[in-house]
Amino acid sequence: MSEHLATLAARPLSRRQPRDLRQALAQDASQFSFFQAVRILGLCEGTRRARRTLPPQLRFRTLASLSFPASELVQYRPQAEEGAAPAEMTVSFMGLTGPSGALPTAYTELLLERRQQYRDDTLHAFLDLFSHRAVALFYQAWRKYRFWLAEEAGEQDGFGRNLLDLAGLGLGRLRGQAAQDGLLDERLFIYFSGLLSQKPLSALTLQTLVSGLFGVRAQLLQFAGQWLAVPLAEQSQLGGSNSELGLSLFAGDRQWDRQTRLQLKLCGLRRAQFDALLPGGSGAQALQALLQYAVGHQLAVDVCLELDKRDVPPARLDAEQPLRLGASSWLGPQQQDPDDVRYALLH
Question: What is residue 45's predicted lDDT score, i.e. its pLDDT?
């Protein structure tokens, strides 16, 4: 997709092809819907990150005619230069006058009469002061319930806050703790709010979260098990505590616990992903923050990294891409994707 867009951008424009969307809108406004046209103008004029929903230099006009147009937009006249008269967009679907106007037809006939006989547009301009406000509120009402437009503008909308409430992250302080001071994007919690609302999180949910964060296939091995050291005071001793045969007696200073350790395997990693997920990398820190939020401090997690065999680096000294002994170095080409890199992420 990116190569296709780059090809289109490098292709010279023909004489019949408009230079940009604003020029196409000015040439034939009837080819655009009202909402899309206003949104395009807002993006072109830099309202994407601004706290406003309408372009500042845009005025809505109504159609002074009794004919029924075939489109929502009749005409768009762009602003000639900075400081000149604002841009005007003539709409046909609402307003005070025109075929769909709120006022009686006689008012539209009066506007036509004054324009044809006296070339006077004063009354029409006065009525459009109220029509502009009504059309602007109509667009803002439409935009209010399209939550993706608020996300596009970088605003925090009510819909996103409601989704965070489902995941128990409605408060900003809680989101900051879960995101580990910016290691995780807060939008990740909005996207997976449905899964995060289910407590406790299942193994399939953890796999889905990790796959969605890194874009790779994840496998979770449950009950991987680990040895737990037993304090000296709790070890079995003859004539002491924990010495009842069949109930509390055990031999040794450690016990095998199968339910407190998981093993997470990330499959098919490319070289850049693999390097980022090595201990100390940015990917490993983000994964640690995600797992700390998901499983807390109750479980230990081991990570297994599987590198794509096509990206196995050759065994040579390289100052630009140095190899890490025991982590990213192999003696020769691999017939299968190597998965021998393992480390403890959560203890």
Answer: 74
pLDDT digits (tens, 9 = 90+) for 93-130: 999 998 888 999 999 999 999 999 999 999 999 999 99
Q: Which residue shows structure tokens 């006989």?
A: 117
Identify the CA nearest to 315 among candidates 334, 338, 332, 336.
332
User: Beta partners for 256?
Assistant: 227
Q: Distance between CA atoms of 132 and 59, rounded to whole angstroms?
A: 6
d(CA 68, CA 55): 28
Domain range summary for the chain, segments of one domain joined by +: 15-152, 156-199, 205-229+252-316+325-347
Helices (H), the chain: 2-10, 21-27, 34-44, 105-118, 122-144, 147-152, 158-166, 172-178, 186-191, 193-196, 203-214, 271-277, 282-295
In contact, 160 and 166? CB cutoff 8 Å: no
Q: Measure CA of the first residue to CA of the last residue in the chain; give whole Å.
A: 42
Count each helix (H run) and each strand (E run) in the chain, helices first: 13, 9
pLDDT in tens, 168-210: 877 777 777 766 666 787 778 888 888 888 888 899 999 999 9
User: What's the CA gap between 292 and 288, in Å, rounded?
Assistant: 6
CA dist 222 and 120 (Å) reads 81
Answer whether 0.70 is exceeded by the pTM.
no
Q: Phi/psi zone of residue 296: left (φ > 0), alpha (ψ -120 to 50 degrees), beta? A: left
pLDDT in tens, 36-67: 999 988 888 765 555 567 887 899 999 889 88
